[in-house]
Write a structure and sequence with these properties.
By secondary structure, this protein is an alpha/beta fold.
């Protein structure tokens, strides 16, 4: 037996040595190849590799370089974005193969929540609380994108956001740091797989580095200002989680950090990202952000901007053409050195090498594979399932949902039959004409009548900005909707935002339902029939009036290609909703920013004492707290217990709770665990998410759910900015959301 164990151990050691040797050999081969290539490259060719330009297929910013094709032919461009399909990318790659050194192009694109098969917007998908599903949607997106000629996605966005006025909350996963870390890891793994040399994987790009989600006033591209402690504790960890997961690229943010724009910030890009975190990939700017350092007021012209960005650690210039126009002069004037140029070029060439583009520049240009994989039946089914699980039931008075079989349903609202709005913002390659609307999802499954009821908004200036045609006939639309509701057993109103009302450059100061839709809702409610409000939106909305007056509210976000089927599945009870929100819903915009893991003050809320921290006109509490979401069934929590009252630094603490499905339907519940450090060397949040388990229970079934806590879960940045756990008292909370919890206490020794 001992001999057999020794033999097995020796085999494992030999296998490890073989794998290590193979990896080392591959790395040496890559280094040699790139070193030899660098020696053959002219300065102009090197600078070309650092130049990322948009094609004329899809323009996402204020301007483009019209002669980008000539830049490709002359070797003055190393990467292209906004170009896809095997045919088109092959055509552009052919141009690169006509250059002296035949260095292949890198093709990038905004594959944010799916490529052709569109999944829920990231804020919606985050409500699944299912890392396996989130990794799966990224994997499918990578398979479709790579089949469509792409090598690189500008995703995931992991910016922590506490202000729903900011339109780009739609593109992230909400307000919680720990949860954001889990999603970051899942997304990087989904996009990049285990081998970038496989032709169905793509480079991921974590963004926006850093702190972009904290823009003042929720206004896009605005200033960010915070302490180092706030950065390290709450905002930086999701980016680091992506780096630790092996993310291949990082995108800089538009905002400043400590008075220096991120794109020119040496501390951020070189000291923190590379030296402290060990990032090995390449850094790309966001769209023209080197140029934008001039209006920031940190440099006087493009010459200074190019020098600052390269020295800070930016490897690739997206669309600004600053590197293309200034780097050669900067080298000639000895403002930057050749080793600094070579360092950036090496990082870009390494990415191309890892993708296998030097061995086969056309390995992603396979039309047959594209036809086979893009929007396949399996991908569409996955999109439907993930969309179902992204839906959050916010209210269900009198158990109005699920709808009764055979009910006469009046489907009303400007979003009820709008294909374009189903796939939401940042659905770049998505074909909205193939999306399923709610009207189509319900058709044939219920006795259905439909009425538009209103326009998205009555604000003509906003309609023009959103490129939406006002259908007019306001009173006629309204009356038809009221008539339809009166003849039905139940009215389902599809209201919210159009896809252009959230996303980039779509900040809003008023985040309630537009007045035209609110008027429609009031009129239908006055008809006297039960009303279900189906929300479609890219951010938390202010819904205090709606919550007080509407019996049932379903948050569906923008669910993607299969939206209509998924919403219908939930409305009819074919799927029991299990989503939980990952961003707090305020009562009104005056509460913003609002988030669950806030800190106490020296005068915490006391309703009986005026001179404590509160508003005169509204509760401190949000309308819907972080982690909130109902089900058609109910869940009871009981018997929270700890296996010990004291935890030593090297030990583990078991937390157990009994969860029972006490309702009438089978269902899924997200059991959430939070921790509070009661007294510490610096002030700490009232609670922080540190674990969750999503469980499925049959009606009447009970299950013990067990969590394990270690000292690692209790660490934070102390008074000296050391990441550590301090001895003392802690509270542990377990419950159905961040507000409704049971609690216990323990001590760390």
């Amino acid at each position: 037996m001992v001999l057999l164990i020794k033999v097995a151990l020796m085999k494992k050691i030999a296998c490890f040595i073989l794998l290590f040797s193979s990896a080392a050999g591959a790395n040496a081969q890559q280094s040699t190849f790139i070193r030899n290539l660098l020696q053959r490259m002219t300065l102009d060719e090197k600078i070309g590799q650092l130049n990322l330009l948009t094609s004329d297929m899809d323009v996402t910013g204020p301007f483009m370089k019209e002669n980008y094709k000539q830049d490709i032919l002359s070797g003055a461009c190393g990467a292209i974005f906004n170009a896809y399909t095997p045919q088109y990318t092959r055509k552009l790659q052919d141009m690169a193969m006509q250059t002296r050194l035949k260095i292949p192009l890198l093709f990038g694109y905004d594959v944010i929540h799916g490529h052709k098969t569109i999944f829920p917007i990231p804020l919606g998908e985050a409500c699944t609380w299912d890392m396996t599903l989130m990794e799966k949607s990224a994997r499918i997106a990578a398979e479709e994108a790579s089949a469509d000629g792409l090598h690189w996605t500008f995703s995931p966005m992991v910016d922590i956001a506490r202000d729903p006025r900011w339109g780009r909350v739609a593109e992230g996963v909400g307000e919680d740091t720990w949860y954001g870390m889990q999603v970051a890891k899942a997304k990087v793994k989904g996009y990049q797989g285990s081998d970038l040399a496989a032709n169905n994987t793509i480079l991921a790009c974590v963004k926006h580095f850093a702190l972009y989600g904290a823009a003042e006033a929720g206004r896009d591209y605005n200033t960010v200002d915070m302490s180092r402690r706030q950065m390290y504790q709450f905002y930086l960890p999701p980016y680091k989680a992506a780096v630790d997961a092996g993310v291949a690229t990082v995108m800089t943010s538009f905002n400043e950090i400590d008075g220096i724009p991120a794109t020119g910030n040496y501390w951020l890009l070189s000291e923190l990202l590379r030296k402290e975190w060990g990032f090995k990939g390449f850094v790309v700017t966001d769209y023209t952000s080197i140029n934008e350092m001039i209006p920031h007021g940190i440099v006087k012209d493009e010459y200074e901007a190019g020098a600052l960005a390269l020295k800070a650690g930016v490897d690739m210039d997206m669309q600004g053409s600053i590197y293309a126009g200034q780097l050669k002069k900067l080298v000639q004037h000895k403002k930057i050195s050749m080793p600094e140029i070579d360092r950036a070029v090496t990082r870009v060439l390494e990415a191309k090498y890892k993708l296998g583009l030097f061995s086969d520049p056309y390995r992603y240009c396979d039309s047959q594979r594209a036809a086979r994989q893009i929007m396949s039946a399996a991908h569409l089914q996955a999109a439907r399932e993930i969309a179902q699980r992204s839906i959050v039931l916010l209210k269900n008075g009198n158990n109005l949902l699920p709808l009764k079989k055979g009910a006469k349903v009046a489907l009303i609202g400007p979003l009820a039959d709008s294909k374009k709005d189903m796939i939401g913002n940042w659905s770049a390659a998505g074909d909205y004409k193939k999306a399923v609307t709610l009207r189509e999802g319900l058709q044939g499954r219920v006795n259905l009548t439909y009425a538009q009821g209103a326009n998205i908004t009555g604000d003509t200036a906003l309609l023009k900005k959103l490129n939406i045609t006002d259908t007019g006939r306001t009173e006629e639309l309204l009356q038809a909707a009221v008539d339809a509701a009166r003849k039905a057993d139940v009215a389902v109103l599809a209201l919210g935002e159009s896809q252009g009302m959230s996303g980039e450059a779509a900040s809003r100061s008023d985040i309630g339902l537009p007045a035209s839709q609110r008027r429609l809702l009031e009129a239908v409610l006055a008809a006297g029939k039960p009303v279900v409000l189906v929300l479609m939106n890219g951010r938390p909305l202010t819904l205090e009036w709606e919550d007080a007056h509407v019996p049932a509210i379903l948050e569906t976000w923008f669910l993607g290609t299969q939206a209509g089927h998924a919403i219908a599945d939930v409305l009819l009870g074919d799927y029991n909703p299990s989503g939980k929100i990952t961003m707090t819903f305020p009562r009104n915009v005056g509460q913003v920013p609002i988030y669950y893991n806030h800190k106490n003050t020296g005068r915490p809320l006391d309703p009986n004492n005026k001179y404590t921290s509160k508003y005169l006109d509204v509760s401190n509490e949000p309308l819907y707290p972080f982690g909130y979401g109902l089900s058609y069934t109910t869940f009871a929590y009981d018997n929270l217990r700890l296996d010990k009252n004291a935890l030593r630094m090297q030990d583990k603490l078991r937390v157990t709770v009994t969860v029972t499905n006490s309702g009438a339907y089978d269902g899924e519940e997200v059991v959430q665990l939070y921790i509070q450090d009661v007294t510490a060397s610096v002030t700490r949040p009232v609670k922080e998410l540190k674990g969750f388990q999503k469980i499925a229970l049959k009606k009447g079934e009970s299950r013990e759910v067990v969590f394990t806590i270690t000292a690692e879960d209790l660490k934070f940045y102390d008074r000296n900015m050391k990441y550590t756990a301090e001895p003392g008292a802690f509270k542990v909370f377990v419950g159905t959301n961040s507000r409704d919890v049971a609690e216990a206490v323990f001590e760390l020794q």
